[in-house]
Amino acid sequence: MLFIEQSKKLSFKKCISDGDLNRFGAFKHVDWIGKPFGSKVFSHKGGFIYLLAPTPELWTLVLSHRTQILYIADISFVVMYLEIVPGCVVLESGTGSGSLTTSLARAVAPSGHVYTFDFHEQRAASAREDFEKTGLNNLITVGVRDIQGEGFPEEFSGKADSVFLDLPQPWLAISSVAKMLKQDGIICSFSPCIEQVQHSCETLRSCFTDIRTFEVLLRAFEVREKKLESWENVDGCSVGSASRKRRQPSAEGCNGVESSVAPSVVVRPASEARGHTGYLTFARLQCLT
Amino acid sequence: MSINKHIEQQSKSNQENNNAQNPRVTWEGCSVLLDINDGDRLAFARLTIGSALKIGNKQCPLQSLIGCAFGSLFQVENGKEGPFLSRIPSNSEGNDLQDQGDSQTVDVSKDNRALVDNNMAQSLTEVEIEELKRQGVSGSEIVGALIANSATFDKKTSFSQEKYRLKKQKKYAPRVLLRRPFARSICETYFKKNPEKIGWLRIDSLSLLLSMANVTANSDVLVVDLLGGMLTGAVAERLGGTGSVCNTHHGVSPYPIDIVRIFNFTDEICKRIVHASLSDLSVSGEHSVESNQPEDLCNATKQSNEDVVCDTSNDHSNSMEEIRITPEDEVLPEKPTSQDKQQPRKAVQAGQKATSEIMNLWRENGFSSLIVAAPNLDAWSIVKELLPLLSFSAPFAIYHQHSEPLAACMRNLQHEKMAIGLQIIEPYMREYQVLPSRTHPHMQMSAFGGYILSGIKICPFEKN
Ligand SMILES: C[S@@+](CC[C@H](N)C(=O)[O-])C[C@H]1O[C@@H](n2cnc3c(N)ncnc32)[C@H](O)[C@@H]1O
């Protein structure tokens, strides 16, 4: 059985799903200690929350947005396409809110390492604090550096398995990335705008091959049980009344005929979705003989 | 830790393993992906002294690829003894030529109004070309000769000229790109060439499954892999020789996982890939003694018969040389002699039966997550049996090609209060052509990559 450690309470608290804590009343953290993960705990007002073991996915949902962040669709695709496996050395810039960094760390664990750089000192410090709280500080090193201006530190030359860029002008960092990568190593650059992609691709062509640009998105579905009445049981009057009543369709039509249908599970895409996050451009360091 | 120290440690442990975890150079006996003519053909192969690739109607030996860096590019040359692969500097040539649709909009100096394509333009005959080949004239020189003898070449737009040159180059001087077989390239190759075998699992769906199930080092991942081993292999790749991935099944026969052999897994990684039947996993601790038996039998077979692959019941994975990606595009069998040499070295086979020790551990701690990919089975019938085997708060992800079984499963999980954070999603992926003044989405795309139901197991309410 897993126990929640007192020292990690804060980060766990942040990972609890089902919305804003305050809405459900006050929770005493001492009550939680010793409970298995996945438990439902109650507040003095009878509100409840679930205690969940933290994962990078949950972290991405609750972290404080100091910048735009990457979400699960892009994150999972980046980790797969960069071929990150345990033991890899990965370079990243900018760190931003550390949403991607957390998943990179999960992928390189236990023996690899993520070196992430942001030129914004405060952001780097907050990210460092977060990684300490979530227990990832042994897998992640946060550095303060202007990667577009200075490139990655020389000490990483030829040592990176993959490099990820989420920078406003990624093309300025590409020649440095080429130096950092091992042979056949992979770069990914994330850019929201197509002009950035265009510019990056032109720069990439000088020493990278296999340049490919993708867009990945998710469509969520709504699932519910619904009684789909047979046509013969529904006249104009019941259609009118059904639309005024919310959700629960009347079991009887106004002509008094009993509903004969059992509810069925129906699925439809949610009406709204994130329509764009950014373009992901991947390329491989050209293999020179 | 400084980077240098880290790298040192890494390479030291690699040497200890004697088989690098993440090698970037090929070796004898390693599995490779061959990308022929810019993705026109994709083939998995094992590099041995005797292995060969069929190009046109000729066998081209693969021996020269041994010891080369992944990412190297080769061109087929005509030798006196037949074709051979010769290393050429890689280039991004051909990248600039992605689709025909936009040629008109770009080339302003010429257009193709005067072009009549009547097959009469080429004065060099097939017979003459064959003769050139026999003389050992290089493929590139033949392409040059074809261009020189084409009556219409000069009239073409530069875009069409490049297209013509590329077409001839692919035919007379095919190029072979050496690729690492990784979950990414293996999934993409099957999706392109034989999607049914991997249940139409697209690369972005696979990526999501691994993330949603929080697959990481030292986790114990329960899977139902009816995708020929694609899922099991991808999970094992992320475990990197730690934790375990258990492919579970109903009844006595484990599911085939022959795709796992395409990965270049170390013995340590292979050891972590096991199978167990649902009944073995569900049995409470006291009964576990009985489940020892089949496993001992298996070990016995292995010990007494060192150079025979230990075939766990009917997990009859054919040797990977026989794996067909498409009927026309198979990888050539090697000569039996080299195969014999290679097998005994592979001491550890992926997909053994789980030992009773590890099953006891799973019973005690629960699996850390669950991934189900059974494209033709009812999702709920699987999930209701397997969810109890997970630890509390364990995430799970269920892949299916239809939304209805996932919706029904989600409804049931809600009613039974077994999980929270339930969500059904459909991934969407679009590739772009990015070229100066010619950037747009690809004209062809995959319109469907499957559905995924994900969630987190919760503690049953009574226990509170
Ligand atoms: C959009 S955020 C990255 C978000 C991150 N990928 C995530 O998922 O949380 C971009 C970051 O790049 C940093 N940045 C911008 N220019 C930079 C430069 N020249 N060198 C280093 N970091 C830079 C910014 O400070 C910002 O934090």
From TrEMBL, chain A:
It is an enzyme of class 2 (transferase). One of its GO terms (molecular function) is tRNA (adenine(58)-N1)-methyltransferase activity. S-adenosyl-L-methionine binds at residues 97-100, 118, 146, 166. Its main location: nucleus. PROSITE patterns: SAM_TRM61. Keywords: Methyltransferase, Nucleus, S-adenosyl-L-methionine, Transferase, tRNA processing. Residues 236-257 are annotated as: Disordered. It holds the Pfam family GCD14. It catalyses: adenosine(58) in tRNA + S-adenosyl-L-methionine = N(1)-methyladenosine(58) in tRNA + S-adenosyl-L-homocysteine + H(+). GO terms for biological process: tRNA methylation. This is tRNA (adenine(58)-N(1))-methyltransferase.
Automatic annotation (TrEMBL), chain B:
This is tRNA (adenine(58)-N(1))-methyltransferase non-catalytic subunit TRM6. It holds the Pfam family Gcd10p. Residues 1-22, 84-105, 302-350 are annotated as: Disordered. It is found in: Nucleus. One of its GO terms (cellular component) is tRNA (m1A) methyltransferase complex. Residues 318-327 have a biased composition (Basic and acidic residues). It comes from the Eukaryota. Its main location: nucleus. Heterotetramer. GO terms for molecular function: translation initiation factor activity. Belongs to the TRM6/GCD10 family. Residues 10-22 have a biased composition (Low complexity). Residues 88-105 have a biased composition (Polar residues). Keywords: Initiation factor, Nucleus, Protein biosynthesis, tRNA processing. GO terms for biological process: tRNA methylation. Substrate-binding subunit of tRNA (adenine-N1-)-methyltransferase, which catalyzes the formation of N1-methyladenine at position 58 (m1A58) in initiator methionyl-tRNA. The keyword Protein biosynthesis applies.
